[in-house]
Amino acid sequence: MTEIFITKPARPAPVRTEGLLPWLKANLFASVPNAVVSVLILSALAWAVVNALRWGVFNAVIATDADLCQAARGAGACWGVVNEKARLIVMGRYPQAEHWRAELAMALLIGLVVASCSRYFWKVWLPLLWVAVLTAFFTLMSGGVLGLSRVTTDQWGGLPLTVMLTVISMTLAFPLAVAVALGRRSNMPAIKSVCVVYVELVRGVPLISVLFMASFMFPLFMPMGKSPDVLVRVIIGITLFAAAYMAEIIRGGLQSLSKGQTEAAASLGLGYWQTQIKIVLPQALGTVVPSIMNNFISLFKDTSLVTIVSLYELTGALGLAVGSDPNWRPFKIEAYLFIAAIYFACCFSMSRYSLWIEKRLAVGKAR
């Protein structure tokens, strides 16, 4: 029997699913309503970008000339205020002749934080490095030794104060938060009750109230002349506030672990602290890395509230630099954009590090 072969027509070429045009079609122009909304949004974004470039770049005044800025007011930005007041905004009321000390101290502290984020520096001598750098920081900022002139804490300000408050408060709040989170899960009623009262009491008031009480109310309960420095009281207040919120985050991570983890540890003969340090905490902290970093970022921005106790950090220093000068006072928006860029750079760096930690943990779990 003779077989008959019938030629089939060629199949159409596969549809391209990668590249810019396929992505636009799938995500922005998949249907007529989708395309209309996309066109409207893109048009609004284009209008905003064009006007922002016209205001911030093409019609902007860079020269430190208040008269030119007044002439361009409303049509272009005045970046001259940043050129004129940048040093005062960044350094606050710190004596100008001693700015090199504040800059060096801030560089040391930021370098310490960056080094601590690298696995290469996770050695037994890292705590000693922290002690050495913090000692150098306060020595440079305060002076009074090694031939350095004395600078009181009420003159500290700007970015060095913001960085110092954030780093020290986060460093002190983290171990306290771990202890409180473990205490809230303790079987001992006294310890559990103390931790519950502390968390609920601190979380029930805003940070501005904590700072107000630390600065103005606490000295009333101390003997005359025996109250700690206002900077110390503010650091303690911010630390206690941040630790209460972080403790609840960590407690959520502890509750996410199955009971089989602790039962397996008990079957191996591990004690309570061995179980917590080697098994429970590493897993619990790994699951709440985004929330912990979110708390850190929030704390970094909340340091702007210390202005109410006459500590002029980055935001407060801007008010001193621009608000007290009638020539540059109308151009606060440009100055605020300047410090907003600083805040964004710091917060974005912390969020990127958080993602790096998450990826490292994901690799570990995959194995």
Task: Describe the structure in your own words.
- This protein has 367 residues and is mostly helical.
- Among the domains are: 98-150; 169-366, MetI-like fold (Orthogonal Bundle).
- It contains 15 helices and 1 strand, in the order αααααααααααααβαα.
- It has helices at residues 20-27, 32-58, 66-71, 80-91, 99-116, 126-142, 158-184, 189-203, 207-217, 230-255, 259-267, 272-287, 289-302, 314-323, 332-366, and one strand at residues 312-313.
- Helix 5 (99-116) packs antiparallel against helix 6 (126-142), helix 5 (99-116) runs parallel beside helix 7 and helix 14 runs antiparallel to helix 15.
- The longest helix has 35 residues, at 332-366.
- The protein is flat.
Describe the protein's topology:
Blueprint: H1 20-27, H2 32-58, H3 66-71, H4 80-91, H5 99-116, H6 126-142, H7 158-184, H8 189-203, H9 207-217, H10 230-255, H11 259-267, H12 272-287, H13 289-302, E1 312-313, H14 314-323, H15 332-366
Helix pairs in contact: 4-7, 4-14, 4-15, 5-6, 5-7, 7-8, 7-10, 7-14, 8-10, 9-10, 10-12, 10-13, 11-12, 13-15, 14-15
How would you sum up this structure in a few lines?
The chain is mainly alpha-helical and 367 residues long. Helix content is 68%, strand content 1%.
Tags for this entry?
flat, 15 helices, 68% helix, MetI-like fold, 367 residues
